[in-house]
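Entry 14. Two folds queued back to back today. First construct below, sequence then C-alpha cells.
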Amino acid sequence: MATKRTTNNVTTTEPETIEPKPFSFARLFSRNGHEKEPVAPVKTKGPPKSVWREYFESAVVTVIMALFGMTFIVQAVKVPTGSMQNTITIGDHLLVNKFIFAPGKSLPFLPQREIKRGDIIVFKYPGNPFDPKRDDRPDNRPILTNYVKRVIGIPGDRIRIKGNSVMVNGEVVPEHRITARDHNRKDPLEILEAPPKKPGELYDVYYKPGPEDDEQEYDAFQGKEEIVVPEASYFVMGDNRNNSEDSRYWGFVPRDLVIGRAMFVYWSFDESAPTTGWFVLDFFVNTRWSRTGTLVK
C-alpha cells in the first residue's frame, strides 16, 4: 500500500517500494503467479524402522534380484572335464547367457536369436541310450549334470564323420585343426603342431598325433555313414576331439535341455597346480589371472 506523508501542512502520497525477489522457475510456472504454500511433512504410521530391519529388507531385495537373474538371465557353471580343451580349460568358471536362447518367439528389440552352428552351449546331459551303464557315475547323471560342447549340426543337417573330417550337408566343416597331446591330467593340452588359420576357419579343434582312423564307428551312427539331426535337436562335439563324450556316442541334444550360450570366463583356477595348504594363498597363486574375462568362442 502507498504511505501518506505531511510536510508544511501539505499531505503527499508516496508510492510503496517493492523489494525485487530473485528469479525462480517455480514462481514463473506456479498457478496465478502465487507461491505454493509449503506442505506439512506427513508422519509415517507405525514405529520407526530399526537399522537391522533396513539391512534385512535390503538383503531380501538383493536375494530376489539375484534369483531372478540366475533364473532368466545368467548362470554360473564350472567346467570339470577336458572335453573342450584348450578352448575351455579344466577349472574355468563360466557365465552363461540364458536369455539369448530363451524359448518362444523373440521380439526385434530383444537380444535373442536361434542356436547356430559353432555356438558353444551349456546343456543338461540327455543320457546315453546306447550304453546306459555309463550314466551310473555320480558325476555323469542325466538331466542333473551340465555339459559344455560346440554345436556342429542344427535341425535338418546331415552329419557324417570320416577320420578327422566332420561333414555337414555333404561339405567338410572348415575347422582349424591343431595337433596336440593330451596327458589326461587337469593341465591344458600340449600343442605339437598349429598350422596357420585358413580363411573361414572360425574356431580351433584338437586331435592327437598319428594317422587318422577312417574306420572308427560311433554308437550314435549305428552303422550308418550319415545321420540327420531331428527337429528341435542339435548335434554337438567337444573341441578336444579324441577325449570328448558327445553326440557321436550318446546322440542329439533336445532343445529343451539347452541352458544357454557360454559367454566368458569370470574365474579360472588351475587344479593341476600343487597346493600350498592354505586356501587363500592357493586362490592368489593358482588362479589363472590371464584367463579372467576371456571370451568363449
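Second construct, same run, same settings:
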Amino acid sequence: MSFKKNEHYTLVQQACDLVPAFKIHYQQFIEKATLAQSSDSLIMNYSRCIAQVALHFSRVPHTISTDELNSYLYRICVHEQKSEGYFKQAVYGLRYWLRVFGKEEAALRMPPVKKKNTLPQVLSKQECKELFKAPRLLKHRFLLAFAYSAGLRMNELRLLKIADVDLDRKQIHVRQGKGKKDRYVVLAKLMADKLPLYLKELKPKTYLFEGLTPGEPMGERSIQYIVNEAVPKTSIKKNISMHTLRHTFATHLLEDGIDIYSIQKLLGHSNIQTTIIYLHIAQVRPQLAHSPFDTLYQKS
C-alpha cells in the first residue's frame, strides 16, 4: 500500500515514527484490510483517522479505553467542529481497527452513525452547460464534461486508462469500481468526437486524466479543485462537488425516459434501493395507466 505524496502518508509516517508499537500494528491492520479486499480509498481514509487518534494519545488505538475514545470523538465533533464525513470516517476507522485486534466489545461501544434521509443536490441541464464551459483549460473542461457524461465516481474517473475507452463501441470499461466490480458504461457521442483532440493536445501516457507526473493519475484534491475553481465563474449558487455530477447524470437519465434498472446498471449500484432515490428528484411527468390490450393490435 503506497501513501507517497499525500497527507495520508504524512500522518501514517508520523504515527509510525512517534507512537510506540504503531508501525507493527499498522502493518497487521493493512494485511487484514487487504485480505478482506477493502478498497484503497477505504484503507487510506481509515489510516488517516487512526493515525490521528494514535498521535493524539501517543498510543495505539486498541490500548485506549472506550471512554477516552468517545471523549476524543466528542471533541472533534463539538469543539473542533469537524465535518460529518470526517466524524463518520473516524468512527468507522476505529471500529475496524478495534475488530482487527479482537476488541469487539469496544467496537460496539463506539457511537452510532445515523444515516440522514437527505436528497442529493443536482444541477439543471443549463447549469451543466455553464459549468462545462467555465474552466479556461481544455483539460478541465473535458474532465468535468466526461465525468457527467458517464456518471463516474471520483476514483473511477481518475483511474480510468486511455485503453479503457472504446471509441468504436462507444463504451467505457470501468475496472474494479466500488465493490471491486467491473462494468461498462456508455461513451457519449459528443465526448467520443472530442476525445482525439483532447489526446492530441494533452498527450497523456496511461491515464485519461494525469497529474503533473506523466503516467500517474490526477489526485482527488486536484480534481475537486477543478470544480471549486469553475463554479464561481458561473451563476450556480448550489454547493456542489464532483459527486454532484454523478447524481445529476442519473437524474437527467430518468428525466430523459431511461428506466431505473438501466440506470442502476450504469451507476454500478448493487442495490436498486440506492438508485430509487433519484425518483424523488427527477422531474418526470406521470403517465396515465392503460391496458396493454389497447396497444396490442396497433401497427408498429
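Quick look at the second one. The longest helix spans residues 40-57. Strands lie at 165-166, 171-174, 183-186.
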